[in-house]
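Pasting as-is:
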Amino acid sequence: MANNTKDQLDMADLAASLPAAAAALSAQDRVGLVNALKNKLQNLAGQHSDVLENLSPVVRKRVEVLRDIQSEHDELEAKFFEERAALELKYQKLYEPLYAKRYDIVNGVVEVDELKDETTTDQADGNTKEVKGVPDFWLTAMKSNEILAEEITERDEEALKYLKDIKWCKIDDPKGFKLEFFFDTNPFFKNSVLTKVYHMIDDDEPILEKAIGTDIEWLPGKCLTQKILKKKPKKGSKNAKPITKTEKCESFFNFFSPPLVPEDEEDIDEEEAEELQNQMEQDYDIGSTIRDKIIPHAVSWFTGEAAQDDEFDGIEDDDDEEDDDDDEDEVDEDEEDDDDDDDEDEEESKSKRQTKKDSIPNTGATGEQGERPPECKQQ
């Protein structure tokens, strides 16, 4: 019976993998995949026909019809993923001109119509100077997001002021997505573009296989992901120079050095594997936040409107939880009140009993005068 159950699960897993696999292929390959997997399922069904043989002929016939219905469903689902991918691609292309206009305005490439005949100035330190574009646009937008704000240190901010644009695109081989960070010439590193690529096992239920980041070419003494520690030499040491060593430190730019997944799972123990999984989940959380929130709604994060919406959503969730807690508290209070009332009633009853007891003459007789009332009888 256990083997039969396992076989059923294996077939279910194979059937469930159909749409995920189809989503990563071309239309022609997808049709071939559907047919191939249908044949595979049929072959597996033949190999494990004992499952059906245990059914009565009537029930077996119904199951066969259900399998046909499932096949039709799988074909439709494959078409759904195909059309969804095409729809996403269509709108991604429609977004691109808007992102290009945003880039030009943010970086001062063009001026908005209302200001073409005016001079934009910034009264800073008593000096009048021209301000191009929107300074610190991407830095401010990212810092407004709670998840990204935790990753950005004060040391990072100066470098992130040179960030001109962030883009993302979907990749098919292997499937996943790529983030691109475009930087102006800066005093921190030579790279003009820093990339982060996520390889996914499944797009529809995101399962991260691994992530690959750019090797940052830091300029001498400008590495933000490491700090230099200097230690005085011991007294009497021949080397009078301070001992220096580098140590990894917190920085947003660690994002481009994601956790590495060992090729051999036996190389890490259970605790290390759990820690690695947590790091990968956090890394994917940062990447997906940039892709799904910051890039499409950058100006809303820059102004803080998006952050307020997030906070409002959080308040609503907290209110729901508090309401539940209040309800529980009210129930508890009601129960306590009931208990208090019961205690008071019991005390009052005891008092009355004691009063009646004291009023009965203690004669020791068993007649009517000396007999205790029924409610006072000891059990």
